Amino acid sequence: MRKILIILFLIIIASSQFGLRLTRRQLSVFDGRYSKVYIGCAGYIFDVTNSPSFKQGGEYYYLKGKDLTIGLAKQRFDLKILELDPKKVTLTDEEKLILKGWTKNFLDKYPVVGYLII
């Protein structure tokens, strides 16, 4: 636990100066247990901390701290899909359009706090 808190502290210090740049693994720490709640989508990191949908009992509670890019594009949110590497997945034109719509929705609704390192 101490190691996680130190890592979070260093990430917060760096982000205040440069904006967050996180890997998918680092993003997983931001699930609300020790800090804010972030999700990833299309390379962006969104702060969804204040969204009831991502709080305990919310419809998207289980998605916090995850990169949702492939799940949103394919409209599937099982762990197998969420763990796919976006660099290794080819999306159809329809899936790209769906992802673009979700990304716009998130950009309109939640603050961007950084970018995913993919």
Automatic annotation (TrEMBL):
InterPro entries registered for this protein in UniProt: Cyt_B5-like_heme/steroid_sf, MAPR/NEUFC/NENF-like
Keyword Nucleotidyltransferase recorded: no
GO cellular component: endomembrane system; membrane
Keywords: Signal
Secretion signal span: 1-16
UniProt cross-references to PANTHER family, sorted A to Z: CALCUTTA CUP-RELATED (PTHR10281:SF76), MEMBRANE-ASSOCIATED PROGESTERONE RECEPTOR COMPONENT-RELATED (PTHR10281)
Lineage: superkingdom: Eukaryota
Protein's name in the database: Cytochrome b5 heme-binding domain-containing protein
Organism: Blepharisma stoltei
